[in-house]
Specification:
By secondary structure, the protein is an alpha+beta fold. The chain folds into two domains: about 1-195, no CATH class; about 205-300, Arc Repressor Mutant, subunit A (Orthogonal Bundle), CATH 1.10.10.10. About 45% of the residues lie in helices and about 20% in strands. It contains seven helices and twelve strands. β11 (about 285-290) and β12 (about 295-300) form a beta hairpin. α1 (about 1-60) crosses α2, α5 packs across α6 (about 250-260) and α5 (about 230-240) packs across α7. The chain is rod-shaped, with a radius of gyration of 41 Å.
């Protein structure tokens, strides 16, 4: 019985495991697609904001004809646009922040003004400097004409596990719980179906096994050349073995099936009663009750 139960559980696990893995991969894939889409949208918004900023910097210098170069994305959070003409550094923070607000970009950032030739840092400030009374660092100083790269580095966006990246945990967890419940229900049903419905000893029933016979109505065990008068518990235990021949019966299952109605169950009762049945069945070479270490007993009946 135990081996059969284990085989069924193994089969259920083999069936449910690929389903669970597939669902998990599906949700992970959806999460990655959403994350990629958000990253693309963020890059587009920053691109537009930087181009607007460059446009206004050129416009205040009276330049309405120069081509604004494309924005280069250095990584997921870093963007660079080249400014080949003299621009008003003091106007940059206002134009840049206005452009980001228009695009709905609200992450904190650092701004660096780099020389095109050697990448040397000439000017720069942090988003928080806009809120300081002192203004931005290096503001009001004379800027030399030349080629500069305007570099904006955003701080990585903080992920909110419960509402953003792991939104799928709740539905996935619910599906896993449902599958687990189905496996448990199936295994419980299968296990219960293997438990015999015992007929009380006062019924008229005779059970053949090996070369012996169990007479439940008269509580008799008829072996080759010998007949034994059985007690109520001996007959009940023997019938349990006979109706489950060649199957492992767990100790707890035996106690529940044979002794449960007594209220008090003594663990050693199983061993004592099994020992009595073994002695009675020694005359039948086709029948043998063996102990399964740590599990219970099995009655082996040769055909």
């Amino acid at each position: 019985m135990l081996h059969s139960y284990q085989r069924r559980m193994s089969k259920l696990v083999r069936i449910s495991f690929p389903i669970i893995v597939t669902i998990m991969l599906l949700f992970v894939g959806i999460e990655k697609v959403i994350a990629n889409n958000e990253s693309i949208r963020f890059a587009e918004k920053v691109n537009l904001a930087l181009r607007r900023t460059a446009h206004h910097l050129l416009a205040i210098n009276g330049d309405s004809t120069s081509t604004i170069p494309p924005v280069k994305q250095q990584d997921a959070n870093t963007f660079i646009i080249r400014v080949d003409h003299l621009f008003d550094y003091d106007k940059l923070p206002v134009f840049l922040q206005q452009s980001l607000d228009i695009q709905g970009v609200h992450r904190t950032y650092n701004v660096s003004i780099l020389e095109c030739e050697n990448g040397e840092l000439r000017l720069g400030y942090n988003f928080m400097d806009l809120k300081q009374k002192e203004g931005i660092p290096c503001g009001g100083r004379t800027q030399q004409p030349g080629c500069y790269d305007l570099k904006v580095s955003f701080d990585p966006e903080k992920q909110v596990a419960s509402t953003v990246t792991n939104w799928w945990v709740l539905p996935f967890g619910s599906i896993v719980a449902l599958l687990g419940f189905m496996v448990w229900r199936r295994s419980r049903k299968d296990h219960t179906s293997e438990i015999p419905v015992l007929i009380e000893p006062n019924t008229d029933q005779k059970l053949q096994f090996g070369k012996s016979e169990l007479d439940m109505s008269n509580l008799l065990l008829i072996c080759p050349g010998t007949t034994y008068n059985l007690t109520y518990r001996e007959a009940k235990l023997l019938r349990l073995f006979v109706t489950n021949t060649n199957q492992i019966l767990e100790r707890d299952f035996i106690l529940k099936s044979v002794w449960e109605d007594e209220g008090i169950i003594v663990g050693r009762s199983v061993d004592v009663f099994v020992s009595r049945l073994r002695k009675m069945l020694t005359a039948d070479s086709f029948v043998k009750i063996t102990a399964v270490h740590g599990v219970g007993y099995r009655m082996e009946v040769l055909s």
